[in-house]
Amino acid sequence: MDDDLHALSGAYVVDALPYADWVLFEEHLRGCARCGTEVRRLRETAALLAEAVAVTPPPGLRPRLLAAATGRRPTPLGGGLASLAAARPWAGRAQGRAQGRGWVARVLAGGAAGCAAVAVGLGAVAVDARRDSAALTAENRRLAGANQRLADANREAADTSRRLADANREAADVNRQVAVLLAAPDVRTVRRPVASGGTATLVVSRSAARLLFTSSGLPALPESRAYELWLMGPDGPRPAGLLGRAGDGVTAPVVVTPLRGDERVALTLEPARGSPRPTTDPILLADLPAA
């Protein structure tokens, strides 16, 4: 069976195999180095034979064509073929051999033309294969870009989910502390005006060690500034947190733990990220209820 497949290389090169034999030979070609070499050489030969299609016309063709165009028969050289044949009896045999050689040349020319057609076909197949490969490469690049964008979107979504989860945990913690504060027996509420505008509300319980601060009506600040809350005791002011941006004029509640010696709450304008010490005069200064 392998010997039969070896003999199919020529038909395979000119694409003359039936489909079933073509499939068998394709499978055989993957593991047969000899057939692979033969196929490459046959394809190179087909390309070279394509150059042999051009044939030089015989010397007498031009006068015969001119005579046919002017309506005159050409004058035979040396008194015509008959006298030439009589004077040289071997001329007939030479003419026969020349005709035979002409027939062979025409056959070779036809074969060369066929090989040239095959070579052109193989070249077209190669061009199509390169075009398909380039299209596949471009599609792979497009898919890789889409996958990268999807991965980036997934990372952004994961980051957003983490931030949302952190905010939910903080809100739940604030809610628990507010519940503890409001349930305390000594809870007190104090409201004070803010010098720059608005009102501050303090809910304090010394027994629960909780202080809730919120405000309403505070003027909006540029992105570079923020409201910062301070607890003030014998050792001076210490930071108690930044007020969140007011969405509807009411800032989010800030719950802090006052120390036993803390006596006042202050509010100042500070850089957007806060400050370890006050840098401006307080716009609010409120006394904390005593224990």
UniProtKB/TrEMBL annotation:
Location of the region described as Disordered in the Swiss-Prot/TrEMBL record: 271-291
Leader peptide range in chain numbering: none
Pfam families: RskA_C
Gene (name only): rskA
Entry keyword Transmembrane helix: yes
InterPro entries the UniProt entry points to: Anti-sigma-K/W_factor, Anti_sigma_zinc_sf, RskA_C
Organism: Nonomuraea coxensis DSM 45129
Primary subcellular site in the record, as a coarse category: membrane
Protein name: Regulator of SigK
Record localization: Cell membrane; Membrane
